[in-house]
């Protein structure tokens, strides 16, 4: 399959990480606490009882990690900034030592000719803002815009892209809907209101960043999936319509059409968000790119217990069905529904139980097969006219996997957390070879 997968010469090949999952240095050089610092130190919140205090120690090992990227021959690195590292309280004074870390990282990337793709928010809200209501407080959206403007002012001419948010669906639904993620709230009405404030903050940030005149392309990263009925029953079809409307269209429609999907609004009923006059004018800013994170489809069964997805290709270590054709179906569906800008696949990858290094090697053939199949699905979507400009493999490093702690490994580089030794897995060597083949 690999030999027939030829992408355009200008196609971007990258790897991705996020700040809280790899940086560590939780209190170093004036960094303030984030909601994930608080959440991971709360007993019972993280499955293995771990926290992100050290993680991959990337804060101190960034030069080594950029060297690893260069050895992989990638031309792009997608990473997030820790808001509390550069503005400890989420408002007020900037922390120059925090900004200096990202300056050093960018300098290292420049040396290796690796383009920087920055995400402003990957779930680690400064705890100071959470103490004032977090994303449920509309004011947080305005603080976020001020943070975005400062990052764009400082770095907007040094980076290729800036994304406002990574997966706001997760912030709203897992952080506020079922308490699985920080800040650990389980309240559907709050969840829906938070989703609106996240979208508002995106629009405000887009306006603020454009006002400072950076040259970076600006956009947002959304986790998306198709929603397939488990059977042809009306109940399953209705559930699939609801799932797609409340998850994919809920974030896409305001950005591209200036309103929420009617089906989802009706479904939310009394939990529908409070929207102020002019909000959709703010949210509906032109974006230069759309980041799409794809891992699985939604398999919708109204039965009790729900019918399970067939998983003909198996499941990942997260229990997620491996369903590469869903990526093709999703992208083609989005192209039919929206006037899309260029797309980057900003995350795609799998958790695999790669806990041991055996004679200097980590054999992860399942991950290679997963990535190869998804790249073939991506190529199919591009053949149907979807404008995709790049692919970022999740993740560069094994890391702190949120409420799963260190039990799940998504990296193509194995990390021994006791020693911080990095070992390329077979998938890393395969990815390098694949990239080299694309450039021949």
From TrEMBL:
Substrate binds at residues 21, 122, 166, 295, 394, 401-402. One of its GO terms (molecular function) is beta-glucosidase activity. InterPro entries: GH, GH_1_N_CS, Glyco_hydro_1, Glyco_hydro_1_AS, Glyco_hydro_1_beta-glucosidase. The active site is at residues 167, 347. Transmembrane segments: none annotated. It is an enzyme of class 3 (hydrolase). It comes from the Bacteria. The keyword Translocase does not apply. It catalyses: Hydrolysis of terminal, non-reducing beta-D-glucosyl residues with release of beta-D-glucose. Its EC number is 3.2.1.21. The keyword Lipoprotein does not apply. Gene3D superfamilies: Glycosidases. Keywords: Carbohydrate metabolism, Cellulose degradation, Glycosidase, Hydrolase, Polysaccharide degradation. One of its GO terms (biological process) is cellulose catabolic process. NCBIfam families: BGL (TIGR03356). PANTHER family: GLYCOSYL HYDROLASE (PTHR10353), LP05116P (PTHR10353:SF36). Belongs to the glycosyl hydrolase 1 family. This is Beta-glucosidase. The lineage of its organism: Bacteria, Pseudomonadati, Pseudomonadota, Betaproteobacteria, Burkholderiales.
């Amino acid at each position: 399959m690999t030999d027939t997968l030829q992408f355009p010469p200008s196609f971007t090949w990258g790897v991705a990480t996020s700040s809280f999952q790899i940086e560590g240095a939780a209190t170093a050089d004036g960094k303030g606490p984030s909601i994930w610092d608080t959440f991971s130190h709360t007993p019972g919140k993280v499955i293995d009882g771990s926290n992100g205090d050290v993680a991959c120690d990337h804060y101190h090992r960034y030069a080594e990690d950029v060297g690893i990227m260069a050895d992989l021959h990638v031309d792009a690195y997608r990473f997030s900034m820790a808001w509390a590292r550069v503005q400890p309280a989420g408002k007020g004074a900037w922390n120059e030592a925090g900004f200096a870390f990202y300056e050093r990282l960018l300098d290292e990337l420049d040396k290796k000719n690796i383009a920087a793709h920055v995400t402003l928010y990957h779930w680690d809200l400064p705890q100071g803002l959470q103490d004032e209501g977090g994303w449920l407080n509309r004011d947080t959206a305005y603080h976020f815009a001020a943070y975005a403007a400062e990052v764009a002012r400082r770095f907007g001419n040094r980076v290729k892209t800036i994304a406002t948010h990574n997966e706001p669906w997760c912030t709203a639904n897992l952080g506020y809907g079922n308490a699985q993620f920080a800040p650990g709230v389980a309240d559907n009405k709050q969840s829906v209101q938070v989703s609106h404030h996240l979208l508002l903050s995106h629009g405000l940030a887009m306006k603020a960043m454009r006002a400072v005149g950076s040259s970076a392309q600006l956009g947002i990263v959304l986790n998306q999936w198709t929603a397939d009925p488990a059977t042809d029953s009306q109940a399953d079809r209705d559930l699939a319509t609801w799932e797609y409307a409340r998850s994919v269209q809920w974030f896409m429609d305001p950005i591209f059409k200036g309103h929420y999907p009617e089906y989802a609004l009706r479904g939310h009923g009394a939990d529908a968000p409070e929207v102020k006059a002019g909000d959709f004018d703010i949210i509906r800013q032109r974006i230069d790119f759309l980041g799409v994170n794809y891992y699985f489809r939604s398999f919708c069964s109204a039965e009790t217990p729900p019918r399970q997805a067939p998983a003909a290709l198996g499941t990942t270590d997260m229990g997620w069905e491996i369903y590469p054709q869903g990526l093709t179906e999703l992208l083609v569906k989005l192209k039919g529904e929206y006037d899309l800008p260029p797309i980057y696949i900003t995350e795609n990858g799998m958790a695999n139980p790669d806990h041991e290094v055996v004679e200097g090697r980590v054999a992860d053939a399942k991950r290679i097969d997963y990535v190869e199949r998804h790249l073939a699905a991506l190529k199919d979507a591009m053949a149907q006219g979807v404008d995709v400009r790049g692919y970022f493999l999740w993740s560069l490093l094994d890391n702190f996997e949120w409420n799963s702690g260190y039990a799940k490994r998504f990296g193509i580089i194995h990390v021994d957390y006791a020693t911080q030794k990095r070992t390329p897995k077979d998938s890393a060597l395969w990815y390098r070879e694949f990239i080299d083949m694309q450039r021949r």
